[in-house]
Amino acid sequence: MKKKMNRRTFLKYSAAVGATTAIAGAPTLLRAQVPEIKIASIQPVTGVISDIGISMRRGNQMAVDDINARGGIKSMGGAKLRLLLGDSEAKEDVARSEAERVIKDGAVTLVGPFLSGNAMAIATLCEQRGVPFVMDVAAADDITRKGFKYTFRVFPTTSKFADSMLFYMDKIMKEKNISKIRGVVTNTGDLFGRVQGATFIKTLKDKKFPIEVLGHIEYPLGTADLSAEISKIKALKPDVLFPVARPGDAKLMVRELYKQRVELQAIVSPGSPGWYEPEFLRDMKALADFVMDNVPWVNPIGKMYKEVNAAFSKKFPGKYIDTNSGYAYLGVLVIADALERAKSTKPDDIVAALKKTYFKQDLMVGLAVAFDERGDNINADTAMIQIIGQSIKVVLPEKAAEAKYIYPMPKQIWDRGV
Hints:
The chain is of the alpha/beta class and 418 residues long. The protein has helices spanning 7-24, 28-31, 50-69, 92-104, 116-129, 158-175, 191-206, 227-236, 247-259, 278-284, 303-315, 323-342, 347-355, and strands spanning 37-43, 81-87, 109-112, 133-135, 151-153, 181-188, 211-219, 240-244, 266-269, 292-295, 383-388, 391-396. The strands form two sheets. A seven-stranded mixed β-sheet has the order 7-6-8-9-10-11-12, sandwiched between helices. A five-stranded parallel β-sheet has the order 2-1-3-4-5, with helices on both faces.
């Protein structure tokens, strides 16, 4: 005798059949019920660099929205991405705890987190939990030198920064008939700042490059006073200041250089975010002019850049795609591309897909995203940008240049006022 099917049994049976037929690829109605795929963004949206964190979260979220609007992950029945949000507060312990939380909430992949120290904390946890982690922005070489299986980076390494910096400085010095530069290097005391400053100096020495480092000055991230440090710089009388800075200390530095009337031929960052953020240009006005920065940057002639920047500026009036928001957007695209090819949310399947990544893009300077055995993007690159007329311009390489660089700065530099 057949058993009668009660309501509870019917619902259980129907759910099982629905799941099976959705996976099998029919019917359309059931395919529309494919579960969402959770990925997580961990950025420093509060704390000492919240402006950057907010910009990066916006880049991550806009990429998710754009992917979903284009049909989601098609190889998994059009599954939509859902972005879980985490705030590292620019603190390593918080970054780790936030990563733990979003993993427990079902995130199959993590993206973020701007600060290299935070990235190391997250990468270590992801290795323990077996969860793929794509660093959109974080440069310290050490992160991908640990033999991590689950960590990938779309951003350039500090070694790449240093090599590109010397390439551009060599070109400038030859064109301006400069045989030697006397400089001072400054950096913040966090992992990125220390590594970036030290790597630049080491590369100068290793390659016997004609830049003499008169002094190397370090200060805490989030400092409220740089008067003593600027006094030291003034006493050393460098030709060029090579600062690794965040937006807050970049503003402090420029104001103090103006206040103490420190004469310089140029301010050229080996690569740091302090000099191109909208808040820096807005607050410094004319004092921002002529600063140069060797930095991963948008491709101003790229089709993808033009489309994404227009949409970003429309969605967030007064803002634009820059290094951080651009790489935040790109990082999510790389994750979506891997999910599409993996046809799975299993960690090892995603990792296998990431290893085979060849993601063509012209959003940022550089070629298609492709990872080496360490998980670093072999085609990540930098450009030399300069603030001219309170506007950021790519000045090198020439193939992407929007303007000719100005070097040295005008002699009456501090007569510009505040």
